[in-house]
Each structure stands twice: as C-alpha cells, then as structure tokens.
Amino acid sequence: MAYRLLVLAVGLGFVVYRASLWWEIRKARRAGDTAREAHLRRHGFGLYRWALGGVAVVFLVLIVIVWANSR
Is the overall model pTM greater than 0.90, yes or no? Predict the structure, then answer.
C-alpha cells in the first residue's frame, strides 16, 4: 500500500513540476525574455538534480539499515 502511495505522490509531483515549468516558460515568452525561456527549456528548475540526490540519500540510508540489521 505504501508503494502505491509513493508512486502516486511521485507521479503527482512530476505533473505539478511540469505544469509549473510550462507556466514559467509561458511567462518568460510573454515578457519577451528569450534567454530565460531558452534556459528553462534546457535546464528546467534543476529539480532533476535534487531528485537524483534525494534518491541517492534514500538508497544510502536503506543500505545502512540493512547492514545494521544483518549484524
């Protein structure tokens, strides 16, 4: 059950991320800020790096938990 909720939360978070990115690109386009629009299209908000870092931290914590329980 927890995995289903986790998958739903991650999916909903991705949808919200994409919607907010679309909104910021739209605002930059309307303001005529082509440099910001191009930057957002290339790099987004940098959320992928934070998500990858979070996954790495959770993975390391799980490894430590399994290692501690095996002793």
Answer: no
- The secondary structure of 5-62, three-state, reads HHHHHHHHHHHHHHHHHHHHHHHHHHHCCHHHHHHHHHHCCCHHHHHHHHHHHHHHHH
Q: Amino acid letter at 71?
A: R
Q: Are 19 and 7 in contact (CB under 8 A)?
A: no
**pLDDT, tens digit (0-9, with 9 covering 90-100), for 19-30:** 999 999 999 999
Positive/negative CA dihedral, 47, 62, 59, 64: positive
Its sign, for the CA torsion 33, 39, 54, 11, is positive
